[in-house]
Design a protein that fits this description.
293 residues, alpha+beta, Uridine Diphospho-n-acetylenolpyruvylglucosamine Reductase, domain 2, Uridine Diphospho-n-acetylenolpyruvylglucosamine Reductase, domain 3, Enolase-like, domain 1, 13 helices, 16 strands, 35% helix, globular, binds flavin-adenine dinucleotide
Length: 293
Amino acid sequence: MIKELEYEVAHNLDEALALAATLGERKRVVAGGTDVVVRLKEGLIREDVLLDISGVEALRGIREEDDWVHVGALVTHDELALSPVIQQSAPVLAAAARTVGGPQIRHRGTIGGNAANASPAGDTLPALVVLDALVILGSVSGQREVPALDFWTGPGRSVCRPDELVTGFRFPKMGVDDVAGFRKLGSRRAMTIATANVAVFFRLGKGGRITHARIASGSVAPTVVRLSKTEELFRQLLPVLSLAAVRGAAQMAWKEVAPIDDLRATALYRKEAIVGLLTETAYEVLRGRWHEG
Ligand SMILES: Cc1cc2nc3c(=O)[nH]c(=O)nc-3n(C[C@H](O)[C@H](O)[C@H](O)COP(=O)(O)OP(=O)(O)OC[C@H]3O[C@@H](n4cnc5c(N)ncnc54)[C@H](O)[C@@H]3O)c2cc1C
């Protein structure tokens, strides 16, 4: 039986933040509700008030702010995937959003909910990390920004306090010398939670060498992880397209990730998967810029 809960609706941001402050740990925020409703049905909601923020206009919209992009917490996966601003300035985030669930989930599910949910398998999380995104947290006492990688502290856990809401995200626009991509492996093509996912970002310098590399992966540790040793090997690559060289650098990811066995896959499978996903993603994004020797 579904537990009886109080239901509070916030009509604007001030109201939402005031309710978050007064209700604190007693409330569970509802944005698109795609996660909350599943938990409700499974009897996993221990809070006694649902705080519906879905009508808060100030949390919607994607806007450009000079060299930055701001994405509101209530922006849906569909909106991300279809936004010309995201396609142009953060195609890795559009690619990640396109892989989330099926059409209904992408229509209702929000980026704020995906991040706040803090699942190690959340698909927008590695994309936000490689974009160097900041998570914007709001409360009645003001606003603070946390680098995406520091936002998640464990499965289902983040630094978002009970009196705070995720109000949005901001990240620098990708430039002409930047390339990025995202891949996910699941048990089937659609409506599937990632067995492993990976996002890559490379900045190419003089002669096409990789000067900045950011590689992040999900479902291979308790939270999304940056693969810094693997990034270092990519920075050392000569700017000549070679599948063997890309695979050689990607191989380091096998050592860097620490997945567990669970219902979806074994740890060994995930390690192999991440090397394959990373090889494919990196090769694909570099193919547009590097020529075979
Ligand atoms: C069938 C199915 C398939 C799915 N497939 C995928 C998939 O492929 N990839 C994937 O990543 N996810 C998937 N999901 C999970 C889910 O749809 C996404 O995480 C979605 O983005 C959640 O957004 P939401 O707005 O619906 O969140 P909600 O359900 O409204 O909230 C999720 C959690 O975040 C909290 N929260 C929401 N917004 C805020 C906020 N602004 N501030 C603070 N806390 C907040 C809520 O309290 C709750 O704990 C799937 C879910 C289902 C049911």
